[in-house]
């Protein structure tokens, strides 16, 4: 399967690494072009270095700032909160990411919410994605699945 992971932090890297080790092709997506370039050049923090350097599956993962292109080939898209300790900021991040997915998806997709918030957020994510698809006047279908960070990938 082709999997996108929206975001690049330690937890995202661990999740993607596990998915790649199971035989999936994983693309980490960030709209921060500089961050992507730095990672490709080998510039990352110590925690990230531990994970990235242990990824001996180079053909199974990559990094991209091209959200539309990455989502165009993905079967699954993982989203989760950012690194903020503020739960309102985390929720806003997840919902903004859901909006981006809705704006850019081009076929049926499974969207996996990796955050630790309540199940009620699943319906919010569905509503936001559907709203974006409706704005585009498309009848694409999707599924939203809860897989909190504390559960195994």
TrEMBL record:
**Any one Gene Ontology molecular-function term assigned to this protein's record:** oxidoreductase activity, acting on the CH-OH group of donors, NAD or NADP as acceptor
Q: Where is the UDP-glucose/GDP-mannose dehydrogenase N-terminal domain?
A: 1-152
Query: Which lineage do the record's taxonomy fields give for this organism?
Result: Bacteria, Pseudomonadati, Campylobacterota, Epsilonproteobacteria, Campylobacterales
Q: What InterPro entries does the database record attribute to this sequence?
A: NAD(P)-bd_dom_sf (IPR036291), UDP-Glc/GDP-Man_DH_N (IPR001732)
Mention any Pfam family matching this sequence.
Answer: UDPG_MGDP_dh_N
**What is this protein's name?**
UDP-glucose 6-dehydrogenase
State the SUPFAM superfamilies in the record: NAD(P)-binding Rossmann-fold domains
